[in-house]
Amino acid sequence: MSNQLARGPVRTTHADGLLASVGARGVLCDFYDEGAAEIYQDLVQDGDGTAEAREFATHASPAPGPVLELAAGMGRLTFPFLDLGWEVTALELSTAVLDAFRKRLAEQPPDVQDRCAVVQADMSAFALGKRFGTVVISSGSINELDETARRGLYASVREHLEPGGKFLLSLELSGPADSGPQERQQELTGRSGRRHVMHVKTVPAEEIQDITIYPAEETADPFVVSTHRRRIATAERIAEELVRDGFDVLTRTPFASGGEGRPDMVLVEAVAREITEGAE
Ligand SMILES: C[S@@+](CC[C@H](N)C(=O)[O-])C[C@H]1O[C@@H](n2cnc3c(N)ncnc32)[C@H](O)[C@@H]1O
To answer: Each residue of 23-51: pLDDT tens digit?
Structure first.
């Protein structure tokens, strides 16, 4: 697998400093790994993806048939999709995240549960043995992948689209200003009341954002430091890659729900380019 979860946690400079100072109490893991499951569940709110799901629905067929959602996470978009009556296959790699997703799904009415299949797979290299009329991915999810892994994603999506099927992506219009590395830190209180510190280092030139999360309580034992690296590829960059890798980009539509705090988002609609017989 070419993804970060399989490679293990990224060693951020910030994490290295913290681990050196806490000695044997220190534990390093990726934010989406088992070791950080408690922290993940404490911090990640289910989030209301209803407005964003509606943006996807505007571009899907009225009755889209089975939909494949890549890197579904806790189901921020999946559950609103299910509310629309869609049949959804939710693909996700992290075991800890999948456990949380399944717990949430089990609380849904039986007819909703029946319309949702859950698959553990790497979105940059998957083979589900079936095709879908629509494949969707959110910006937070595509930003999990570096450029090489994104090539794998596009190839896998092509293999899973029905003829004429749509690949729908929500994407950020602009990355952070190219003004050199920036660092910020904030304290977060989890559902349990526990306090965590989140440190974010953005390196615009490398399109990288390194996140380090650790206990605000300096004496915590174990002192779990969870890290994660996300990419910050813009809509323009992704659209260029899609064209390079055999898609036609049909539309790029600013979110109508821009007023709801997402003024910088677009919905991109792509279809796999037909290969003309005899073409190179
Ligand atoms: C920022 S969350 C976004 C979740 C959801 N799509 C949303 O928009 O709320 C990214 C998710 O991608 C998952 N992920 C990371 N790398 C992955 C991969 N290679 N294949 C599948 N899922 C992956 C993570 O475990 C995490 O749940």
So the answer is: 999 999 999 888 888 888 888 766 689 99
**Cβ–Cβ under 8 Å, residues 137 and 70:** yes
Topology of domain 7-36+176-231, CATH: Carboxypeptidase Inhibitor; Chain A (3.30.1040)
**Rounded to two decimals, what is the model's pTM?**
0.90
Task: Give the residues surrounding ligand 1 with Cβ less than 6 Å away.
Answer: 3, 5, 32, 47, 71-73, 76-77, 92-94, 97, 122-124, 138, 140-141, 144
Question: What crossing angle do the helices spanning 235-244 and 147-160 adopt, rounded to 10°?
Answer: 60
Nearest-5° Cα angle at 41, 37 to 43: 115
Q: How many residues does the chain have?
A: 280
Architecture of domain 50-174+233-272: 3-Layer(aba) Sandwich (3.40)
Ligand 1 atom nearest to 32, measured from its CA: 25
